Amino acid sequence: MSKKIFSGVQPTGNLHLGNYLGAIKNFVELQNEKENKCIFCVVDLHAITVKQEPKELKKNIRETAATFIACGIDPAQSIIFNQSMVSAHSEAAWILSCVSKIGWLNRMTQFKEKAGKDKEKASIGLYSYPVLMAADILLYDATHVPVGDDQKQHLELCRDIAQKFNNDFNAPDFLKVPEPLIQKQFSRIMSLKDGIKKMSKSDPSDLSRVNLTDDKDEILNKIKKAKTDPLPLPEEAKELAKRPEAENLLGIYSSLKNQNLEISVSEFSGKNFSEFKEKLSETLIEKIEPISKEIKRLLNDEKYLDTILLEGFHEADKMASKKIKEIKELVGF
Ligand code: AMP
Ligand code: TRP
């Protein structure tokens, strides 16, 4: 069955291995199933839910587009566009926020994590962020949404919003209820410095993540310094349950190799970390170095990136304008 794929990545800098293995690698595989129609969005409206430096944001928008392309998203096959250019996203987000319940948003764990202790000081945008995400998806009648594990709850909310809108406006099946596509294994890559913390753009320590713009030496250094435990690598995968750092590093290796965790465990069974880390660095460099070089090459060609984003905008805008018109009609505008 052909799928209509939609996903988004925030242009907040430091795109890392977690973004790649949890999301972008999957985008490329879905694109390569020829019958799928794929739309990938640089979600800059989401980025401003926390303060951004305007010049940095502009640079990061191009860098995110460059990263998509460098990772293998082909602009001739898939739509790559910038969210803020298509005004229907903001319009749909407002309308959908009027059918969404405060109680639903109050359950969102990402808001609680991002807002921290002082929730009163968080922006309203950060709070209503998942409604904008629902608008992104529903405007394109997406059937499937590939994301990392941390976005699962937001997708469930999107499904609730779609159903509520269809119900409220007596329009069965008008907004398509999308399916999440979350990888069964390795859907949450953890920090290199702490195996129970998610690898994140905002971690103050750059040693906690492999950035997609890192070169060979940076990767070698980060893997060398990655946290481990004193034991040799286990003989069985079930022994990893109490060894988060070993589990994460073996997970990264397996995901890069497209192999089961069990196979990686047997490959390094009883060996020490230094031997495994050597192999892991080698595998990472093989995969990430070409991406990193290509991102840098593309960033020198702003004109090309802007053309891709402009072409993507025209295609996305055509679809989204049609849908928002129908939404407004149903609402009574
Ligand atoms: P963001 O950078 O927050 O816009 O995330 C872009 C995509 O990467 C989303 O699908 C996230 O779920 C995914 N992602 C972000 N961090 C990780 C991680 N540490 N492990 C797996 N997936 C991740
Ligand atoms: N909220 C997602 C994240 O932080 C990004 C995103 C915005 C998204 N809109 C989307 C992902 C639509 C999938 C579909 O990772």
Please tell me what the overall shape is: globular
Bound molecules: adenosine monophosphate, tryptophan
The number of helical runs is 13
Distance between the termini: 36 Å
Report the CATH architecture of the largest domain: 3-Layer(aba) Sandwich
What Rg do the Cα atoms give? 21 Å
CATH superfamily of the largest domain: HUPs
Residue share in helices? 40-55%
Structural class: mainly alpha
Average pLDDT for all residues: 97
Which strand-content bin applies to the residues? 5-15%
CATH fold naming of the largest domain = Rossmann fold
Polypeptide structure, described:
- There is one protein chain.
- By secondary structure, the protein is mainly alpha-helical.
- It has 2 domains: 4-188 and 302-331, Rossmann fold (3-Layer(aba) Sandwich); 206-297, Tyrosyl-Transfer RNA Synthetase (Orthogonal Bundle), CATH 1.10.240.
- The protein is 54% helix and 7% strand.
- The protein has 13 helices and 5 strands.
- Strands 1-2-3 form a 3-stranded parallel sheet. The protein has a two-stranded parallel sheet with strand order 4-5.
- The longest helix is centred in the last third of the chain and has 30 residues, at 302-331.
- The protein starts with a strand and ends with a helix.
- 42% of the residues are buried.
- The structure holds adenosine monophosphate and tryptophan.
- Residues 9-10, 18-19, 22-23, 147-148, 150-151, 187-189, 198-199, 201 line the site of adenosine monophosphate.
Features:
single chain, 333 residues, mainly alpha, Rossmann fold, Tyrosyl-Transfer RNA Synthetase, three-stranded parallel beta sheet, two-stranded parallel sheet, 13 helices, 5 strands, globular, binds adenosine monophosphate, binds tryptophan
